[in-house]
Amino acid sequence: MNWFFITLGYSGLAPKAPGTIGTLVALPLGMLILIYLDAQTLFLATVLISIIAIKSINKYEEETGIHDDKRIVIDELAGMWFALSVAPAVSISLHEVSDFSNGFIIQSILSFVLFRYFDIAKPSIIGRIDREARGGIGVMGDDIIAGFAAGITSAALWQGILYLNIF
Fold first, then answer.
1. pLDDT at residue 165 is higher than 90
2. At what angle do helices 104-121 and 74-86 cross, to 10 degrees?
3. DSSP letter at 94?
């Protein structure tokens, strides 16, 4: 078992709000991938990390008997990165980051806030996966769906902002 991996560089060992801390670690890493590579790379990296995480979490749960240990925050990275790969999902250069009209920063922040909301509130299928799925699928699944929901909602809100000509 790779404790460094499943705790996202030990960020899951934070005494308070390890899920939020893990998401805060994942956000700038995902943004850097979007800036220096692209959304497809971020998406594919997230798929690969999710597959490895499911196997690692299964092994951890088998060894410890603990399901969904709060210190495991690799699921937050997957959810946050899926949200970022949906929205902003734009390829920009480093000097364009501060230009609010491209929506990169706004959608990244919206994705963070919405992901944390969906991950904590667990509405609809997100909660069902969290309650009913076992092992690594259960730990990762709700965050993956929450990430997609956050990305889609963030993109829709950004389109509304553009439609209203706010920026």
1. no
2. 130
3. G
